[in-house]
Amino acid sequence: MRVVFLVLKFGLLAILYLFILRVFHFILTDLRRVSAKGANRTPGKQVPSGAELVVTESNDPAVRPGEVIKLSAATRVGRGKHNHLSLTDSFVSHDHMQIIFKQGKFFLEDLNSINGTYINGVRVKEPVSLSHGDAIRIAGVSFKFVRWEYEVE
């Protein structure tokens, strides 16, 4: 009888340790996922221009108003997971738009999206040079293009 209680005691202890290990596994997995999502917000090599997109309005749970996305030499936005900024809105195309830094300026280019990209309320049909304060809208998400003051021409 003592052997049975001893086996039950060690069995219960083993189950308790397995439960604790499983909880830590879930916590670490979740932290890695959140960390990877945060890393996605600062894409690639940073451009020394100090330019960023600030989310002003959003119906998309992937981004919240006030969130800041730092821009790199080439920043892609769309519903596809390979984009630097991946949105979940069904009105966003898989590859919706990109912002490219060249010749000391940032240019926004719509990537033939179905629902379009708008700058200051005007639909983009060809690459457009961005200016400090421009309002950019993709589906239910609006951004403000911000460039550090000393770098604005």
Assess the beta-strand content as a share of residues. Answer: 25-35%
Largest sheet: 6 strands, antiparallel
How do the helices and strands follow one another from N- to C-terminus?
A: HEEEEEEEEEEE
Determine Rg (CA atoms, Å). Answer: 23 Å
What is the quaternary state of this protein? Answer: single chain
Biggest sheet, strands in spatial order?
A: 2-1-11-10-7-8
Helix content: 10-25%
Instruction: Count every beta strand, where a strand is a DSSP E run of 2 or more residues.
Output: 11
Structural class: alpha+beta
The residue ranges in which pLDDT falls below 50 over 5 or more consecutive positions are none
Averaging pLDDT over every residue, what do you get? 86
Note the total helix count: 1
Q: Calculate the terminal CA-CA distance, rounded to whole Å.
A: 86 Å
Gross morphology is: elongated
Reconstruct the topology from this structure.
Blueprint: H1 2-39, E1 51-58, E2 68-70, E3 74-78, E4 85-86, E5 97-102, E6 105-110, E7 117-119, E8 122-123, E9 128-129, E10 135-138, E11 141-147
Parallel strand pairs: 3-4
Antiparallel strand pairs: 1-2, 1-11, 3-5, 5-6, 6-9, 7-8, 7-10, 10-11
